């Protein structure tokens, strides 16, 4: 990919989505909520699948203006060693967690591919579902991770506005906009079964950002139709660098976004993390969201060690325990699901074949 692909800027096919997202939309949010709730109930039932993140390392060579792990932050740098990873996973299992997301910063000599591959092997011994949210990799590297038991990759574009992207990613390997945009497809080509995408809301104008995210999700779903695709809606949260986002995304705007995505992408998992307040997460459960994080720590480790006074990548909002969160779901008639994937199905996908469209570019 040498140019911004045509599917990312195709205005003609997203007019209805723009109409639902717009703040002056003629479609009121109650109507969107009713439609989204009916679709969610029909396609997913009264369930929310749960996962939890485990930060393996906060070493990072990049200079992302909005990130608490950027290389110019004064964060104490560390990585988990093998015995620490095992203890953290054991502590997470005691909370009931069976679906784990392993995170690092961008690739470094301290926390590179070999380190990540070993971490995946360890996690796959205990967890039926292991995903990673790390640095972009090659097709062969993703294939190797899949062989080790990794089934999912989460990779956020952060912002789909190329000009803003170049401004915010001040230095480091993350500066390459197109390489990052291609990453979900390299992961799928390497045999990873599911990919999660998203934009960090607050970095760019939110309606345009949501439209580009929608086009990306739709492109992946059409091109890699045998794979699982999910979309997330992370809003900027305070981080130790004190960077202030230029765009405020209100609760009303975020809710409209999630509801519109449910209507436009009825079969896609939509995720909402502990970045959001408990009341907002409770309100969106069952309306459109089908996947949520619980008991999250954004420090390196944190489940076995407990609180260390260290500040994480960003501040979380929903600090409820796994038990408290699950009870809140049950009170709303929603079943929390800790395991919806069996380890017997792990290994590279062998039949995910793209259906074309990868060479689309702006004329």
From TrEMBL:
<keyword id="KW-0411">Iron-sulfur</keyword>
<protein>
    <submittedName>
        <fullName>Tyrosine lyase ThiH</fullName>
    </submittedName>
</protein>
<dbReference type="InterPro" id="IPR007197">
    <property type="entry name" value="rSAM"/>
</dbReference>
<dbReference type="InterPro" id="IPR013785">
    <property type="entry name" value="Aldolase_TIM"/>
</dbReference>
<feature type="domain" description="Radical SAM core">
    <location>
        <begin position="46"/>
        <end position="281"/>
    </location>
</feature>
<keyword id="KW-0479">Metal-binding</keyword>
<dbReference type="GO" id="GO:0051539">
    <property type="term" value="F:4 iron, 4 sulfur cluster binding"/>
</dbReference>
<dbReference type="GO" id="GO:0005506">
    <property type="term" value="F:iron ion binding"/>
</dbReference>
<dbReference type="GO" id="GO:0016829">
    <property type="term" value="F:lyase activity"/>
</dbReference>
<dbReference type="GO" id="GO:0009228">
    <property type="term" value="P:thiamine biosynthetic process"/>
</dbReference>
<keyword id="KW-0949">S-adenosyl-L-methionine</keyword>
<dbReference type="InterPro" id="IPR010722">
    <property type="entry name" value="BATS_dom"/>
</dbReference>
<keyword id="KW-0408">Iron</keyword>
<dbReference type="Pfam" id="PF04055">
    <property type="entry name" value="Radical_SAM"/>
</dbReference>
<dbReference type="InterPro" id="IPR012726">
    <property type="entry name" value="ThiH"/>
</dbReference>
<dbReference type="InterPro" id="IPR006638">
    <property type="entry name" value="Elp3/MiaA/NifB-like_rSAM"/>
</dbReference>
<dbReference type="Pfam" id="PF06968">
    <property type="entry name" value="BATS"/>
</dbReference>
<dbReference type="InterPro" id="IPR034428">
    <property type="entry name" value="ThiH/NoCL/HydG-like"/>
</dbReference>
<keyword id="KW-0456">Lyase</keyword>
<keyword id="KW-0004">4Fe-4S</keyword>
<dbReference type="InterPro" id="IPR058240">
    <property type="entry name" value="rSAM_sf"/>
</dbReference>
């Amino acid at each position: 990919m040498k140019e911004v692909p045509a599917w990312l800027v195709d205005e003609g096919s997203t007019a209805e989505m723009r109409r639902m997202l717009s703040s002056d939309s003629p479609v009121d949010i109650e109507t969107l909520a009713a439609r989204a709730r009916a679709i969610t109930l029909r396609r997913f039932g009264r369930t929310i699948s749960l996962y939890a993140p485990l930060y393996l390392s906060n070493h990072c060579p990049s200079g992302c203006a909005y990130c608490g792990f950027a290389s110019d932050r004064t964060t104490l740098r560390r990585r988990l060693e093998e015995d620490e990873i095992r203890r953290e996973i054991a502590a997470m299992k005691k909370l009931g967690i069976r679906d784990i997301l392993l995170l690092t910063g961008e690739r470094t000599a301290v926390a590179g591919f070999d380190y990540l591959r070993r971490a995946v092997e360890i996690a796959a011994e205990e967890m039926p579902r292991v995903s990673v949210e790390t640095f972009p990799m090659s097709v062969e590297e993703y294939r190797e991770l899949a062989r080790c038991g990794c089934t999912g990759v989460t990779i956020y574009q952060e912002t789909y506005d190329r000009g803003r992207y170049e401004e915010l990613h001040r230095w480091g390997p993350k500066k390459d906009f197109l390489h990052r945009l291609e990453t979900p497809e390299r992961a799928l080509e390497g045999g990873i079964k599911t990919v999660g995408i998203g934009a960090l809301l607050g970095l760019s104008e939110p309606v345009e950002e949501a439209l580009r995210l929608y086009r990306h999700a739709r492109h992946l779903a059409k091109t890699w139709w045998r794979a699982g695709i999910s979309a997330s809606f992370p809003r900027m949260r305070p981080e130790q660098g004190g960077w202030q986002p230029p765009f405020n995304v209100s609760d009303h705007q975020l809710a409209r976004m999630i509801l519109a995505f449910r209507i436009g992408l009825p079969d896609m998992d939509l995720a909402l993390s502990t970045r959001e307040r408990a009341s907002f997460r409770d309100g969106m459960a069952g309306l459109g969201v089908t996947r949520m994080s619980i008991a999250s720590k954004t420090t390196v480790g944190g489940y076995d060690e407990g609180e260390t006074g260290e500040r994480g990548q960003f501040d979380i909002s929903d600090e409820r325990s796994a038990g408290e969160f699950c009870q809140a779901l049950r009170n709303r008639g929603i079943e929390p699901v800790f395991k919806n994937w069996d380890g017997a199905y792990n290994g590279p996908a062998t039949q995910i074949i793209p259906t074309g469209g990868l060479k689309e570019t702006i004329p």
